[in-house]
């Protein structure tokens, strides 16, 4: 994906940070227009509203459907905002294009489905419509699947592509509705620096209280914008009421966010980055030495017919190193995750050695 173009609508590039806001679902014409007026007052330029809602279970509100597209048109006429909605199949795309929706996004359940993605790419190609499209991360933390979804659209000629980071599904109770796993969007940024990343703190947090801090975190990580759910009367929303905020609250949150976009002369960083380069080299050297010792231990185990994994020793290592790391101001989780990765590789090397035929 060499030729990604900036996100622009009607040849006007969206200013960073790109802020998209609107209700989770379009419910009534009045709710859509009242919310839109509040958002326009708060300076929002791109309105969002779900028209077709992929719900976890049947029986919930599954979206207002095509009549909602006419309300989006009214939002455009009255406020001048651009409008966006989620599409999940051929019919949705055709209807959205017919009603002049300015920007489309693909939901997390759809981007996880290559058949649906190909169908959407095909209909956009057939329509010859060059429209900006944002692709939410798939529900499962699979970067290649996310990239695959983007590639299908790119191959269909869509060049104004972006992504939405909405967090990843996990099982069991936790703080976030969808765990952010920031390293996944950051890896996408590393591989495709020109694809804009928009954070969706509403779906990551699942609660109003988390929106401000998640938004700031995303901006601090260099994300290009935010998509935040907003409703004129959040407590009465027909879907996702816990994570919606009024346009007025959104205005306050946005006023308090710090967008760090000043071009900093990189010379200031050169010295520090040299230190990081040097330290990384030392880390690699030390890790190489550690793996060599593990190889020797593996050879000994093979000779004496000992099992590779030694749970007691591993537990000792984990406990002592985590304590040592903590005393140096590092997080316990961080050290645990590093050690488990190192241990996994060390065990892999010893198992490989065991499986080698004696020559
Ligand atoms: C290196 C060994 O083999 C395995 C790998 C370990 C490691 O790399 O730290 C620790 C315990 C074992 O599960 C060992 O037994 O000491």
UniProtKB/TrEMBL annotation:
Keyword Ligase attributed: no
Residues annotated as domain Chorismate mutase: 263-354
GO BP annotations, alphabetical order: chorismate metabolic process
Pfam families, per database record: CM_2, DAHP_synth_1
EC number of this enzyme: 5.4.99.5
Record has Nuclease as a keyword: no
Keyword annotations of the record: Transferase
MF terms in GO: chorismate mutase activity; transferase activity
Endpoints of the signal sequence: none
InterPro entries membership: Aldolase_TIM, Chorismate_II_sf, Class-I_DAHP_synthase, CM_dom_sf, CM_II_prokaryot, DAHP1/KDSA
Superkingdom in the source lineage: Bacteria
PANTHER family noted in UniProt: PHOSPHO-2-DEHYDRO-3-DEOXYHEPTONATE ALDOLASE (PTHR43018), PROTEIN AROA(G) (PTHR43018:SF1)
Annotated protein name in UniProt: chorismate mutase
Species the sequence originates in: Duncaniella freteri
Lineage of source species: Bacteria, Pseudomonadati, Bacteroidota, Bacteroidia, Bacteroidales
């Amino acid at each position: 994906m060499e030729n990604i173009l900036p996100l622009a609508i009607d040849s006007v590039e969206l200013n960073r940070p790109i802020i998209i806001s609107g209700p989770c679902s379009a419910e009534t014409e009045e709710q859509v227009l009242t919310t839109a007026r509040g958002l326009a007052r708060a300076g929002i330029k791109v309105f969002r509203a779900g028209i077709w809602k992929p719900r976890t279970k049947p029986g919930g509100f599954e979206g207002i459907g095509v009549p909602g597209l006419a309300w989006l048109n009214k939002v455009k006429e009255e406020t001048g905002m651009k409008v966006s909605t989620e599409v999940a199949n051929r019919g949705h795309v055709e209807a959205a294009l017919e009603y002049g929706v300015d920007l489309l996004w693909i939901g997390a359940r759809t981007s996880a489905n290559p058949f649906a993605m190909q169908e959407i790419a095909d209909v956009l190609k057939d329509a010859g419509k060059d429209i900006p499209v944002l692709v939410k991360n798939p529900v499962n933390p699979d970067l290649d699947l996310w990239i695959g979804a983007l590639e299908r659209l790119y191959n269909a000629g869509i060049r104004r592509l972006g992504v939405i980071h909405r967090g990843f599904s996990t099982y069991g109770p936790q703080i976030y509705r969808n765990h952010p796993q920031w390293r996944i969007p950051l890896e996408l940024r590393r591989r495709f620096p020109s694809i804009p990343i928009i954070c969706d703190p509403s779906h990551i947090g699942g609660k109003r209280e988390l929106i401000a801090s998640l938004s700031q975190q995303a901006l601090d990580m260099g994300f290009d914008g935010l998509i935040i759910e907003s409703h004129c009367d959040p407590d009465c929303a027909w879907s996702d009421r816990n994570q919606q905020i009024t346009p007025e609250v959104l205005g306050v949150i946005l006023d308090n966010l710090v967008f760090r976009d000043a071009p900093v002369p990189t010379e200031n960083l050169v010295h520090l980055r040299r230190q990081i380069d040097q330290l990384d080299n030392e880390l690699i050297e030390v890790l190489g030495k550690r793996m060599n010792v593990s190889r020797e231990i593996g050879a000994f185990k093979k000779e004496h017919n000992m099992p590779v994994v030694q749970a007691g020793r591993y537990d000792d290592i984990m406990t002592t190193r985590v304590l040592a790391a903590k005393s140096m101001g590092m997080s316990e989780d961080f050290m645990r995750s590093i050690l488990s990765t190192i241990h996994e590789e060390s065990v892999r090397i010893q198992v490989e050695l065991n499986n080698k035929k004696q020559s």
